[in-house]
Amino acid sequence: MTDTTLATSTHDTACGSQLGDTPPSHLQLPIASRRPAEVVREYGPFHGASTIHGVTHDGQRVWAATGEQLVGFDPASGATTRTLNVLCDAGTAFDGTHLYQIAESRIDKIDPATGQVLATIPAPGGGNDSGLTWAEGSLWVGQYRDRKIHQIDPATGAIRRTIESNRFVTGVTWVDGELWHGTWEGEESSLRHIDPTSGAVLQQLDMPAGVGVSGLESDGAGLFYCGGGGSGKVRAVRRPGAQGQSA
């Protein structure tokens, strides 16, 4: 998602020209559980960065894609601990060893210690990709306007299967067998837990008015980390059922 917009003084703006400029879809699937998102902490804006695209978590630090630099920060203190100078204009993922980063029409495999790009595969959307996450030995790639999530082979980029949503897809994450994705249409943004077979919405967390979700990743426990587009911020949102977790 190539950045063409910047933040306003009071509202987030999306991380690409395709975000936030289309009215919400009127198609609604049944939602079994819907509630306001509980934002427990904000991070940023970060030095020299005006926009957040992808977000991931490596078990110790949160990584935020800011366009030309991946910023790694300590979620306890908020302090920036690493920066990598790489093109990073959409989703970010971590497989336990390597970072994966959407950069225009490709996905780069990156050594987090050096920032070296070790391999590259084509992104399924050819430059119209959004979120990215790692699960079950695959990369999962959001397709914003197509309202889809593709499971792809991390070595070749071949699509293994496709899941359809009824909302625009921004960030994507798996946690404890649950598939979640961010949405952002106009002034409405939310986190949605969907059935990976049918796309039916099982839970929905509605973000506060004017607060968008560009990237999304779980910490594997009680929090989601959400990129805030043109606000330049990353927000920690409490995951349902994880009331004891704090940022």
Care to describe what's here?
This protein is an all-beta fold. Helix content is 0%, strand content 43%. It contains no helices and 21 strands. The protein has strands at 34-36, 39-43, 55-57, 62-65, 70-73, 80-84, 92-94, 99-103, 106-110, 117-122, 129-135, 138-143, 148-152, 159-164, 172-175, 178-185, 188-194, 201-206, 216-218, 223-227, 234-238. The strands form five sheets. The protein has a five-stranded mixed beta sheet with strand order 1-18-17-16-15, with no helix packed on it. A hairpin with a 2-residue loop joins β11 (129-135) and β12. The radius of gyration is 16 Å and the shape is globular. The two termini are 28 Å apart. Mean pLDDT is 88; it is low at 1-11 and 20-27.
Task: Give the gist of this structure.
The chain is mostly beta strands. It is built from no helices and 21 strands.
Task: Using the alpha-carbon principal axes, give the shape.
Answer: globular
Helix content: under 10%
Q: What is the makeup of the main sheet?
A: 5 strands, mixed
Q: Please provide the count of β strands.
A: 21
User: What is the straight-line distance between the termini?
Assistant: 28 Å
Mean pLDDT: 88
List the strand order in the largest sheet: 1-18-17-16-15
**Rg of Cα set:** 16 Å
Determine the number of helices (DSSP H or I, runs of at least 4 residues). Answer: 0
Structural class: mainly beta
Report the order of strands and helices. EEEEEEEEEEEEEEEEEEEEE
- Low-confidence runs (pLDDT<50, min 5 residues)? 1-11, 20-27
Indicate the proportion of strand residues: 35-45%
